[in-house]
Amino acid sequence: MILDTALRLFRERGYDRTTMRAIAQEAGVSVGNAYYYFASKEHLVQGFYDQMAEEHTAAAQDVLAKETGLARRLRGVLLAWLDVAEPYHEFAAQFFKNAADPASPLSPFSDESEGPREAVIELHRRLLAGADIKADPELAVQLPRLLWLQQMGLVLYWVHDRSENCARSRALVERTSPLVARAIAASRFRVLRPLVREVTDVLGEFLLPAGDRTAPGRRPSPAGPGNVTGADPENVTGNP
Amino acid sequence: MILDTALRLFRERGYDRTTMRAIAQEAGVSVGNAYYYFASKEHLVQGFYDQMAEEHTAAAQDVLAKETGLARRLRGVLLAWLDVAEPYHEFAAQFFKNAADPASPLSPFSDESEGPREAVIELHRRLLAGADIKADPELAVQLPRLLWLQQMGLVLYWVHDRSENCARSRALVERTSPLVARAIAASRFRVLRPLVREVTDVLGEFLLPAGDRTAPGRRPSPAGPGNVTGADPENVTGNP
Asked: Where is the HTH tetR-type domain positioned along the sequence (chains A, B) (predicted)?
């Protein structure tokens, strides 16, 4: 109830202008009691993330039980997120400036957000496990995390989406799901493997949250660490 | 001089807290005079973008004259941007929340920013024209815009980069430039063409600024507009 009250006040008054005192008052509990459950306003946001991850998992259940096509499963899981997130669209837009900095505890990339992040990554793992198309084995290890990263891209797009009922975000999911499925299928081409491996490595090094960078299966780039600064950047042609 | 003064005050006091009156006062001109050159604070930011595009083009001159390797040209142009932008890193971090919304006139995606945006796209066009590796012809038309989009991705990364001298952003450029060059070379594989075309189309529809969406060379998706909502999302396998 404290969490629900907080989210309502965040929506009505904005995140920055809502105090713990006001949340306690509206929820009809003492300030001490509110602090007992949530040590700070930031912790309320973590509670919100937990709740979103839970509702998202529940909302995606149906499509994951019914569909085996990879594109349909991707589409279903991402549309389920848009459904679950819809009531918070306005809040998200003004909240975004607090969460956009990866160094903020409110960032979905932060250590503090590991719990709900791992829950969503697990959802993407199940999405992949039940699909009829399999990725290149090396890519497969990192893929649930990369799909989570793609979802974060969708969140960024959605936050700025002013179209009615976020129709643009929905159209983006409709358009990209078959594409991502196709790219995953294409990852098995032998000739593309070095490129796939490099892209996966770079995403792992620069974009995935710190705690996940040493995830099992991450391999050093084949050219070794010298690649980063010293190696010849012109070794690019592959064998087209 | 008005612009230089404004940028100094933005850095010292923050964008939100700097008024046109204060800028005029510090620059030693009348408020009317300041408004004569810049109709609003937003226009000062546009002036800043113009100046950045100009300095960036000048700083990239050297590498574009000397290098023919695509990866080296990419690397040189992006590192030149990081050099030129460095003095504004702190300003950019706190300014970002005003510019991150694509609907804001301060967004690099806005109609108001078309001038400096086109200047940077032109720089990427020259980067590609002088390189020894050519892209698939269909991709080539959109590629300068896509490289501009990649640069915006770098800006987003850099804004949040807290490493010393933005070493992480530099490392990202070192790592991604050979990769992007390789991906451009790979775009010529016949078997990848449908995927390349689709990805280019989606980026054009959803991420490029509105004015650029009808750029010459953009073709409708081969499956037609029905693709967006009605078509079978499972046509994904290609022929791996």
From this structure: 1-56
**DSSP alpha helices (H): ranges in A68-224?**
70-85, 89-99, 114-129, 137-159, 167-186, 193-206
Percent of chain A whose pLDDT exceeds 70: 87
Residue A88's identity, in one-letter code, is: Y
Token look-up 């064998």 returns A239
Q: How many Å apart are CA A231 and CA B171, to the nearest integer?
A: 13
Q: How far is A30 from chain B (nearest CA, A)?
A: 35
- Contacts for B95-101: CB closer than 8 Å, 24+ residues apart: B95/B10, B95/B15, B95/B45, B96/A100, B96/B159, B97/A97, B97/A100, B98/B15, B98/B16, B99/B45, B100/A96, B100/A97, B100/A100, B100/A160, B101/A160
pLDDT tens by residue, A27-85: 999 999 999 999 988 889 889 999 999 999 999 999 999 999 999 999 999 999 999 99
Helix (H) or strand (E) holding A11: helix A2-13
Whether A206 has its CB under 8 Å from any CB of chain B: the answer is yes
Q: What is the ipTM of this complex?
A: 0.73
Q: How far from the centroid of its chain's Cα atoms is residue B194's Cα?
A: 26
Contact call for residues B181 and A236 (beta carbons, < 8 A): yes
What gap in Å lies between CA A121 and CA A116, rounded to an integer? 9
Q: Give whole-number Cα distances, A221 to A204, A238, B200, in Å.
A: 11, 16, 27
Considering chain B, what percentage of its residues have pLDDT values greater than 70? 87
DSSP assignment of B72-124, as one string? HHHHHHHHHHHHHHGGGHHHHHHHHHHHSSTTSTTSTTSGGGHHHHHHHHHHH
Please name each of the domains of chain A with its CATH number.
1-39 (1.10.10.60), 46-207 (1.10.357.10)
Candidates A234, A235, A237: best to mutate against B (most CBs of B within 10 A) is A234
Å between B107 CA and nearest CA of chain A: 12
